[in-house]
Design brief:
GO cellular component, one term (chains A, B): cytosol
Shape of chain A: elongated
GO molecular function (chains A, B): sequence-specific DNA binding
Largest sheet of chain A: 4 strands, antiparallel
Protein name (chains A, B): AsnC family transcriptional regulator
Oligomer: homodimer
Keywords (chains A, B): DNA-binding, Transcription, Transcription regulation
Number of domains of chain A: 2
Helix content of chain A: 25-40%
Strand content of chain A: 25-35%
DNA sequence: TGCTATGCTCGACGAAATGGACAAGACCAT
DNA sequence: ATGGTCTTGTCCATTTCGTCGAGCATAGCA
């Protein structure tokens, strides 16, 4: 499905998505038209979902991060889901099996702000919040193998 | 700290980090050297941590995702932290306040694989695993405001 | 053996990035 | 006010890069 060359290319792009085709093609030992074509196919196949930029939330003033587990009260599941989607401070959220229904990541500037955000959920769900102290594993890819 | 122009630029780059300087500069209404200079500064200030590529784990064969909460047994904290860092299937992990000490995201191909991975933690920590059913909020940025 | 698919290279041309010289505005101390 | 300087911008010439068309090599297969 993905050959070694594709994986090499992806590995390089993860570290620098703005590398020029030329430099990329030199690193992997192909001509730039072939690399260009491979990129096109990787995008087409949705292996590459997007080229994007990794921004430090702290640089935007969000010095604090929390992980929130959310268990909607009976009958509130869809309302809570919508509520979560409409809170832009929640930057990712998964719906999961188990007692908790949603697990999300929240960026905020102060405890007051956190309190305000959680209050909006409190009427419709039980929440359990853990403040992030550090990130032993930064976002990375699972093995390409 | 970040002016409106920077935020506009970041907003565009989040959606397409490989956009040409020229097109980017047209969209924001500056010349390309100035945009280039702004990018340089944004990288220098570490607002932009990296230009990267968003890859679908499913395209690499990881059809399943779980969120794992890990509570090391007494005295095992550092060993567990190292263990987590050395498990490449864990693609992000935070150290948090509260009963759980670590919360991580895990990509895997089969229940057997999940079982194997959790077994490696089981001797040194209690774990609590939630399988991801869907992702109501895909990775996004908190408000730039 | 010969047909076709795929995936590559090469070279040329137009497009884009870069670097240098310089201008406009904000701010400050004199 | 005057002049210095710092920041952020433009413009333009040069260099670098991406894309396109044409053509070649290999693998799979009737």
């Amino acid at each position: 499905m993905l050959d070694e060359m594709d994986k090499t290319i992806l590995g390089i792009l993860i570290e620098d998505a703005r590398i020029s085709l030329k430099e990329l093609s030199q690193k992997v030992g192909l001509s730039s038209p072939s690399v260009s074509e491979r990129l096109r196919r990787l995008e087409e196949k949705k292996v590459i979902r997007a080229f994007t930029v990794d921004i430090d939330p702290a640089a935007l003033g969000y010095n604090l991060t929390a992980i929130v587990r959310v268990r909607p009260l009976p009958g509130m599941l869809h309302i809570v889901e919508r509520l979560i989607q409409e809170m832009p401070e929640i930057t990712e959220c998964d719906k999961v099996t188990g007692d908790d229904c949603f697990i999300g990541k929240l960026h905020f500037r102060s405890m007051e702000q956190l309190d305000g955000l959680l209050d909006r959920l409190a009427e419709k769900a039980e929440t359990n919040t853990s403040i992030v102290k550090s990130s032993p594993v930064k976002r990375r890819l699972p093995p390409l193998g």
